[in-house]
Structure formats: C-alpha cells, structure tokens
C-alpha cells in the first residue's frame, strides 16, 4: 500500500554526469512539482551546514530548510536519518535491497528509516506547496528505499547518456560555489557506467520505470517533457516552464547537493547533446555491446 498523503516522487536514476540536473529542473518547472536534486544528501548537508543551498544561503540560514526542520519529529530524527542513510543508502546496498535480503533487526531499522524518510518528503512537499517531488539522487538504492520502505508513489526515470560523453565530463574537474566534483579516468568511468546502468535496469522489476536517453531528451526537450507528464498521472495536464521548444525558465529553488549548475537561474536554452561513436573510445567489446543496447552506435 502506498503512503497515504505522501507526495509522488519522480526519481531520476543513472550514472553521474548524465544530465540529471537539467532533466530534474525541467520536471521541477511543472505546476505543483518541485525539484531538490540529490535528496539523499539533504539531512547530512543540513546538519553540517557548510555547503550552500542553491538559493545562496547556508542550509540552516535558508528560510525553506529552516521551515522544513522546524518540524520537531524531523529535528529529533536527524541522527537516525543519517544512520539509516549510511547503513542502507548506497550503490553497494542495491542488490541486497532488491532481494530484500536482511535479517530481522535490519528490517526493523529499514522500516523505521523508511517511515522517517516518508515524513521528511511529506514535510518538504507541504512547505513547498507541491504534490510532486523530483529526486535526482541517482543511486538505485534510494528508489528502492522510497518505494519499499517509505511506501511512496515512486516513478523512476532511468537517465542514460552516451558513455563517451560521460567519460569526457568526468575527466574534467567541475566546481562552482560550494560544489567540487571529483575526476575519474576513462577506464574508471566506463566500468562504473556499465555497472550503474545495469543495476538501474533492475529497478524495472520493482518500480514504474521508463528509460530516457539524454540525447533524445535534449533533441526535443519540450516534447520529451510532455511524454513524461503524460506518463506520471500526478503530472498529467499540468503547465510547465518551457517558453519555446528548447528554452525554459528555471526559477530559484532549494537544493543542498548536486551539480554546480544548480546555482543558475532564469531562462536557459537546452542544447542538443549529440551521440558520440563508441569505436576507438577505449571501451572494451563488452562495454560497447552494452552501450549499443541503448541505441548508441559504434
Ligand atoms: Zn535555500
């Protein structure tokens, strides 16, 4: 049974640097929806109070998060939420979560963590005045926790991007304001890209699932968003922020963790991300075969 009164969560799963910030904010532009980027980090970042919210304030100085955590149950549950996150919410936990392979004490703890997480999402939706939340935490483990233990109405978009573009992006350092992202070599990225996407595919068995190639999305972003709105019942028939077929208005929002692009607001043009050839990219034959299943050509 789904959590009564809980918001609908559009969850973006996939490898980092696949364009999730853009997709996240496009969905967040829809009426009665709001995006918060990588939501698995909210509690940590609020408690640490070192990295800025995308509105420019420190988390504990941001009026939005102050209001969210004015809820005494949540405030008291911060240590438990952090503990649950550290125990269960990471890539390494995904297969265990998929199988539900936990002993009794873990199951009790997971149920409690799920209940508190549902409380957090309900509170965020209430303060934001929305009924749909966009969470681009990307780790499949999070989608499973939201669905199975928080019992929220979760809709998963598996965002896939051409691995050559992803590897190129991870090679460059990227930092702005308070976000500094690590760099990875091509070989490291190709390995992670395949594993992460493979595990994301496994979500199909547990959550309503739809695959979105980033290149297809950027080719016709307004039409692609219309398809997503049609797919998620809570978004059907709602207005969105597109001003033209490729330009969209991003309003200020409150994200505590994500790509440095989260600090940009105003009218943004979504540029087409073209697909790159896989041959001579340094990928192994198995990786090339795997990527070609998503329609990327050699
Ligand atoms: Zn803020």
UniProtKB/TrEMBL annotation:
Gene3D superfamilies: P-loop containing nucleotide triphosphate hydrolases. InterPro entries: P-loop_NTPase. SUPFAM superfamilies: P-loop containing nucleoside triphosphate hydrolases. It comes from the Bacteria. This is Sulfotransferase family protein. The lineage of its organism: Bacteria, Pseudomonadati, Pseudomonadota, Alphaproteobacteria, Rhodobacterales.
């Amino acid at each position: 049974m789904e959590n009564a009164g809980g918001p609908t969560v559009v969850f973006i799963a996939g490898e980092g640097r696949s364009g999730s910030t853009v997709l996240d904010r496009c969905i967040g532009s829809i009426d009665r929806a709001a995006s918060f980027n990588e939501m698995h980090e909210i509690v940590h970042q609020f408690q640490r109070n070192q990295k800025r919210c995308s509105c420019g304030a420190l988390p504990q100085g941001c009026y939005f998060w102050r209001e969210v955590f004015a809820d005494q149950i949540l405030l008291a549950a911060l240590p438990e939420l952090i503990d649950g996150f550290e125990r269960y919410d990471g890539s390494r936990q995904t297969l265990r979560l998929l199988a539900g392979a936990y002993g009794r004490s873990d199951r009790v703890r997971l149920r409690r963590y799920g209940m508190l997480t549902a409380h957090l999402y309900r509170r965020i939706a209430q303060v934001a005045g929305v009924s749909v939340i966009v969470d681009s935490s990307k780790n499949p483990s999070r989608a499973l926790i939201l669905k199975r233990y928080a019992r929220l109405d979760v809709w998963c978009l598996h965002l896939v991007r051409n691995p050559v573009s992803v590897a190129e992006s991870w090679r460059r350092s990227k930092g702005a304001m308070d976000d500094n992202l690590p760099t990875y070599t091509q070989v490291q990225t190709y390995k992670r890209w395949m594993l992460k996407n493979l595990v994301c595919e496994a979500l199909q068995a547990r959550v309503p699932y739809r695959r979105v190639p980033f290149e297809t999305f950027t080719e016709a972003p307004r039409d692609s968003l219309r398809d997503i709105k049609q797919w998620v019942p809570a978004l059907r028939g709602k207005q969105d922020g597109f001003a033209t077929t490729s330009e969209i208005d991003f309003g200020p929002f409150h994200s505590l963790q994500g790509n440095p692009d989260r600090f940009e607001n105003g009218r943004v043009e979504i540029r087409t991300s073209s697909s790159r050839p896989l041959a001579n990219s340094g990928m192994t034959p198995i990786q090339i075969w795997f990527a070609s299943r998503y329609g990327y050509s050699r």
